[in-house]
Amino acid sequence: MILFDLSKIDAEISELEEKENSEGFWDDPNTARVVSARLSSLRGKKAKLESIQNSYKDIVDLLEVCDESDMEMRELIEMSEDDLTSVAEDLHHKLLFSGEYDASNCTVEIHPGAGGTEAQDWASMLLRMYTRFAERNGFKLQIISIEDGDEAGIKSATFKVIGEDAYGMLKSEKGVHRLVRISPFDANARRHTSFASVNVIPEFGEVSDIVIDPKDLRVDTYRSGGAGGQNVNKVSSAVRITHLPTGIVVSCQVERSQLFNKATCMQMLTDRLMAMKLEEREKQLKSVVGEQKKNEWGSQIRSYVFQPYQMVKDLRTDYERGDIGNVMDGDINSFIYAYLEMEARNSGSSKN
Fold first, then answer.
1. Cα distance from N-terminal residue to C-terminal residue, the chain
2. How far is 170 from 109, CA to CA, in rounded Å?
3. Are 268 and 107 in contact (CB under 8 A)?
4. Which segments within the chain are labelled E, that is strand?
5. What is the C-alpha separation between 334 and 158, in angstroms, rounded?
6. Which residues are CB-neighbours of 34 under 8 A, at least 6 positions away?
7. Residue 103 in contact with residue 169, Cβ under 8 Å?
8. With the C-alpha atoms ordered 313, 99, 40, 9, is the resulting torsion angle positive or negative?
9. DSSP state of 207
10. Global pTM?
11. What pLDDT score was predicted for residue 55?
């Protein structure tokens, strides 16, 4: 067995510690938060690596001195090996989060494709799936804005996922998700296909190379409504900001305070502009923000089939599962890890 190589983790920890100790570092709270989150994540992984290596060495030492007739000792060693295997597998998953922003919080946007009520209902089903996913993984999910559908579902939803490796976990969800089912809205019970897009943006913090001219902004205020806005719909506290040069639109209705909602919108706009800038750099296209997709046939990343059979299949990795109820209840970690494993293999191949 080859033990884990800590040299790369140690090198990045040293680099981030140097940043953290530099003069004026804490004057920029947003950047400090991103760096500190990454540093904390790396330190935790290093501690687990060292613990696993020590446990492995202890087991090897016990095997060398253990008498084969000592059944009690043999059982103890087997239990230790099972525990070590489980911890090592969990750590292996965590080590897949090697991107610069993987440890950061992220913002997730869901938009239905064409199809009216069908697509809007599908978008709301995805929102529920990610809400359950956050609960299962100990993340905090904060709704930023929701626009209800005309009859059912949602026209759009934006929410923040807060916790260690939130972006690392959810970056694989960016793309178009396709649903096939017997429509509950069709009196003739025909099978329908619906699409919804998911966009995932890391929390970049303060970025010096993104400058927003107030003249380039159109700021609108309105009364909040729908989920997340029940407590603020009596006054025009919700804020929508349009960045005129790019057409990017962000909105927030999470608080009663118009100033707070505007500040949240500005941070979201900065993150969107930074993501756009990174997308223009082909070198970082796949490692940071993934590929942009359109809401149409041929561009989906995952297919969810309810009828005539039950199957969820990721079209990038070919990983599939038949327990669609569990998947829609937020049990999507296996899809995420299959994608991250594929990306790690591809990254390793490209370096050779």
1. 23
2. 11
3. yes
4. 106-112, 140-148, 154-162, 175-182, 191-202, 217-222, 238-243, 248-252, 300-305, 311-314, 320-321
5. 24
6. 101, 104, 203, 204, 205
7. no
8. positive
9. -
10. 0.70
11. 72
Helix (H, G, I), strand (E, B) or coil at 197: strand
User: Residue for token digits 């959810």?
Assistant: 170
Cβ contacts of 329 within 8 Å, gap of 6 or more: 129, 132
Residues found in the chain: 352
Residue with more model confidence, 55 or 234:
55
Which residues does 250 contact at the CB level (< 8 Å), separation at least 6? Answer: 158, 240, 241, 265, 268, 269, 272
The string of DSSP codes covering 69-132 is: T-HHHHHHHHHHHHHHHHHHHHHHHHHT--STTTTS-EEEEEEE-SSTHHHHHHHHHHHHHHHH
Give the distance, in angstroms, between the CA of residue 36 and the centroid of all CA atoms in the same chain.
Answer: 19
The residue type found at 214 is: P
Per the CB < 8 A criterion, the answer to whether 192 and 216 are in contact is no
> Residue 336: which of 159, 171, 94 has the closest Cα?
171
Task: Give residue-wise pLDDT tens across range 253-280.
Answer: 887 788 889 988 998 998 888 888 877 7
Lowest pLDDT segment from 12-26, 48-62, 103-117, 304-318: 48-62
The whole-angstrom separation of Cα 345 and Cα 293 is 23
Beta-carbon count within 10 A of 241 CB: 21
| Cα distances (angstroms) measured from residue 225 to each of 147, 156, 235 | 7, 12, 11
Report the distance separating Cα 286 and Cα 109, nearest Å.
19
Q: Within 13 A of 85's CA, how many CA atoms are on the CB side? A: 6
- SS3 assignment, position 224: coil
321 Cβ neighbours under 8 A, 6+ residues apart: 311, 312, 327, 334, 335
